[in-house]
Amino acid sequence: MTPLRYLAAVALTIAATCSAFAADPVFPPGARVGMVPLVGLVKAKSFVGFETENQGVKVLVTDLPAEAYGEVANAFKANPAGTGGVKPETIETAAGLAYYTVESAKENAKEGAANVRRYSMILPGPTFSGYVAVQVPENASKIYTDDAVRQMFATAVIRNEVPVDEQLSLMPFNMGELSNFKNIRTLAPGAALILADGDEKTGFEAAPFMIIGIIGSTAASPDDRGRFAQQIATTIPGVRDGRITMSEPVRIDGQPGYETRIDATSGKDNTPVTIVQWLRFGGQSSLRIIGSSPRDVWAKAFPRFRAVRDGIQPR
Q: pLDDT tens digit string along 193-247?
């Protein structure tokens, strides 16, 4: 190679390296964990994360409870050799020290199923733990190597908040009113949304909050709506000693619905709360709206709940 060609090759190599390192982390829509995806990975269509065009390589991104990171860190310290032949490793990220594992497995764990390489990483967040899971089929392992996945893990970053407009754009309905709730967050992007005056640190139950989402079931017939509404009301998480005080049919935006109210206790401090559940029935699914408030501020909270309810429109 002539000196001129050699220098040109070096320049191209440096430029490519600088471009790779200069790439900005990408956050999948609604996610609080982002990273610089490997070449060939695009935003996934059916889950939160990234995937190849043929959907063979998958990178799932999600949140776990804040204590999950500490539990993994303690397990690593107690047994640094790992278990079952899977040894945890550490890697430095912009969010802090992360732990990850690598293992080989069979896709769907069936005989004759394709071999896959699986990677799992957990990293610390301010009020949550970030989690990334990667699956690489054997036929892509020469491109998406252990070292390449590790380099991608090293680019992981955390954002404390997801822009409200970004979160709302993922929901299957439009929100016309947010009633001045201080914190808005998707519990599962595209599936459920929480509006709250409290936060993850203080706990949601000590102040008014709402949970809104679509459930994939509905009453079998108009006569079954009351039973269906009361049965669904018993599944509201975190509610103890619940007592239904009212349950009756209503019209919500011109559609049949049901309103159910419950007195209960909730949260680690056993806060006395009043809860309202609205169901707006559709053909094969139902819009479910839950509003919970400490009982002593219920009179102020209920009009806010109702304003949010009345501002929800199909997308």
A: 999 998 877 778 889 999 999 998 999 999 999 999 999 999 998 899 999 999 9
Residues with Cβ < 8 Å from 120, sequence gap 6 or more?
Answer: 100, 101, 131, 132, 133, 134
For CA atoms 163, 165, 170, 173, the dihedral sign is positive
pLDDT band of 13, cuts 50, 70, 90: very low
Please measure the distance between the N-terminal and C-terminal CA atoms of the chain and give it in whole angstroms: 61
**pTM for this structure?**
0.75
Residue 19 has pLDDT above 50, yes or no: no
- What is the Cα–Cα distance from 266 to 283, expressed in whole angstroms? 33
- Residue 114: which residues within 8 A CB-CB, separation 6 or more? 106, 107, 137, 138, 139
How far is the C-alpha of 100 from the C-alpha of 123, rounded, in Å? 9
What is the tens place of the pLDDT at every residue in 281-303? 988 889 999 999 999 999 999 99
SS3 letters for the chain?
CCHHHHHHHHHHHHHHHHHHHHCCCECCCCCCEEECCCCCCEECCCCCEEECCCCCCEEEEEEEEHHHHHHHHHHHHHCCCCECCECCEEEEECCEEEEEEEEEEEHHHCCCCCEEEEEEEEEECCCEEEEEEEEEEHHHCCCCCHHHHHHHHHCCEECCCCCHHHHHHCCCEEECCCCCCCEEEEEECCCEEEEECCCCCCCCCCCCEEEEEEECCCCCCHHHHHHHHHHHHCCCCCEEEEEEEEEEEEEECCEEEEEEEEEEEECCCCEEEEEEEEEEECCCCEEEEEEEEEHHHHHHHHHHHHHHHHCEEEC
